[in-house]
Every structure is written in C-alpha cells, then in structure tokens.
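Deviations from the work plan: none for this task. Representative record:
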Amino acid sequence: KAGVTQTPRYLIKTRGQQVTLSCSPISGHRSVSWYQQTPGQGLQFLFEYFSETQRNKGNFPGRFSGRQFSNSRSEMNVSTLELGDSALYLCASSRQASSYEQYFGPGTRLTVT
Amino acid sequence: TQLLEQSPQFLSIQEGENLTVYCNSSSVFSSLQWYRQEPGEGPVLLVTVVTGGEVKKLKRLTFQFGDARKDSSLHITAAQPGDTGLYLCAGASSNTGKLIFGQGTTLQVKP
C-alpha cells in the first residue's frame, strides 16, 4: 500500500507570495492533518480535515488555510508569506478523525527568502 | 495548555550502550505515541501505548506508559548506529482531539 505523498518536496518562495502544498493520504484514510516543524518550536498542529470538513485547528494565523477534496486529498495554503514561515510542513493521514495513530508523509521543505 | 517535555534533548553515545528517553506532562493523555524521524523524512510511528502501566517491546526498544498516563519512557538496549534519529513522543488529548508533540530527543549513536 502506498504511503502518504506530499508535493512538492522542496519550495523556495519570496516574502509576500503565497504557496499551496498538496497531500495524498494512504488509500482508505479519510483524515488528513497538517503540521509545521521548525527547530525552535518543534512539531505544531495546524489543522485536521475529515470528510472535507475542518475538525480541528491549531493556533496559527488566518494566513494558513486548508481544504480537503472528496477523494480525501488535501491542500494547505499560506498567503502573504513571512520569513518565519520557513519550515518543514508535514501531512499525516489516519483512518478516522482525531485518531492517535497517524502516518506521516515526507514533508515539504518551504524556504521563504 | 497541554505540554509534553522530553529529556534529554540531545544524546550522543557509543554503539552498544543503553539509553532512556523520558516524556513527561502534568496532563493525562488517552494514549501516547513514539515516533522516530530521520533527516529529510517525516516521523514514523514506532508504538502506541494506551493503558496506564503498559509496557511494549519492539526488538531492542522498550516503551512504558506511566500508571497515571501522564508520562512515558523509551529504553534502547545495546544501541546501534541505525538507531540514530530524532525521537518524538506525542500525546493524544481526549479533550481536544489533537496530538501534542514533545520537542524531541536527537540521538546519535557512534560506531
């Protein structure tokens, strides 16, 4: 069974631009969660989507948004990029909502210059 | 706010040594997971513990969940260079439905 895939793997953007990251969950998994990982803050929860609905949201500004499609694939968008948004963005999928067993993708490394 | 504190943050040992990583909180979690992450990759789930006092073994790795479900430990016996990586504990909050991650322990095992 294929794992969680994320595209692109690496991205360089300029401050003020916007970016869209994509995540395809494991087949049969309906929940997708997004995390931001930085050396200083560690892994921080962004949001979770289940059946195309946002179920949970972390403490991030409104510039961070996401959505989920009917095939469970998910995208997250960051608008008006800031230097501090440079991070590894991880997507994780699970069978059920709020599941404690999550399977992570390889991440998208975003660098904002 | 629920927090998970991991210790130590960094650990550099020689091949063959034993080590223990701790994950502590003042909050109760419905379950606790341990992940291992290698550079450039996402975390990989190692184990989930659910019951207070539960002990699980995965080859040379032993995981324990505290009786009060507020803390956990990971013990590695006879560490090998392949064990090198970032070890993360994560607690599942039954209140919020979110997974709270510790800051991680970076382990380096030298041959």
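Chain B has a mean pLDDT of 92.
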